[in-house]
């Protein structure tokens, strides 16, 4: 395939374009949902992983919970759940924070920044789960270039879950967004 940073930078740029098209007033509601999804997945993974792996091992006796198949299963589960939450927010009814968009160029710049934030959160979360489960996409025949480049290795340390060492810190931006909305 190619360098992993190229693929995830492309995902972030797509979210910038979506943010510009939708405007920051709508994108902030998506930011809240993305942050909540990241928080919930972080809270649940410690409890879910051992139970899920033991359930799969019970159903399939040859399944080894420490194998690459387990990494692939967990990565697919978390990435699939996260993408589903993001997709559901964009495609259906979503949280409506209301508000009026600022006039250009200020509104456009804010929309770009919020789109960039959403792109960073989405691409960074997908990359994070790829990283902690040892890049299982390589088992589908076309993985990311291994070993990772120096740039990619540096970027792994800047992923959302790496920067927010405690998932509770993700609630701070949500609280700020909701307080600003309540303020009017």
In DSSP terms, counting alpha (H) and pi (I) runs of 4 or more, how many helices? 7
Give the low-confidence spans: none
Helical content class = over 70%
Radius of gyration: 18 Å
Q: Determine the structural class based on helices, strands and strand pairing.
A: mainly alpha
Shape: globular
Query: What distance separates the N and C termini?
Result: 47 Å
Order of helices and strands: HHHHHHH
Domains counted in the coordinates: how many?
A: 1
Largest sheet: none
Q: Per DSSP, what share of the residues sits in E-state strands of 2 or more residues? A: under 5%
Mean pLDDT: 86
| Total E-strand runs | 0
Explain this structure:
- The protein is mainly alpha-helical and 184 residues long.
- It has one domain.
- It has seven helices and no strands.
- Helix 2 packs antiparallel against helix 3, helix 2 packs antiparallel against helix 7 and helix 3 runs antiparallel to helix 4.
- The longest helix is centred in the first third of the chain and has 36 residues.
- The relative contact order is 0.20.
- The model has no long low-confidence stretch (mean pLDDT 86).
Topology:
Layout: H1 4-22, H2 24-59, H3 68-91, H4 106-132, H5 150-156, H6 160-163, H7 171-183
Quick rundown:
This protein is mainly alpha-helical and 184 residues long. Helices cover 71% and strands 0% of the residues.
Features:
mainly alpha, 0% strand
């Amino acid at each position: 395939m190619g360098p992993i940073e190229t693929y995830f930078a492309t995902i972030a740029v797509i979210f910038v374009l979506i943010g510009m098209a939708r405007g920051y007033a709508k994108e902030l509601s998506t930011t809240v949902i993305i942050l909540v999804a990241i928080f919930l997945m972080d809270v649940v993974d410690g409890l879910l992983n051992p139970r899920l792996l033991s359930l799969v091992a019970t159903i399939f006796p040859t399944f080894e919970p420490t194998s690459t198949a387990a990494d692939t299963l967990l990565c697919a589960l978390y990435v699939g759940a996260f993408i589903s939450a993001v997709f559901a927010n964009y495609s259906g009814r979503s949280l409506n924070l209301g508000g009026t968009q600022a006039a250009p160029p200020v509104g456009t710049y804010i929309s770009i920044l919020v789109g960039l934030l959403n792109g960073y959160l989405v691409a960074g979360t997908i990359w994070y789960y790829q990283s902690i489960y040892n890049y299982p996409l390589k088992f589908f025949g076309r993985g990311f270039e291994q070993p990772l480049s120096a740039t990619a290795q540096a970027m792994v340390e800047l992923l959302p879950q790496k920067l927010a060492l405690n998932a509770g810190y993700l609630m701070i931006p949500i609280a700020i967004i909701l307080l600003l909305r309540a303020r009017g």
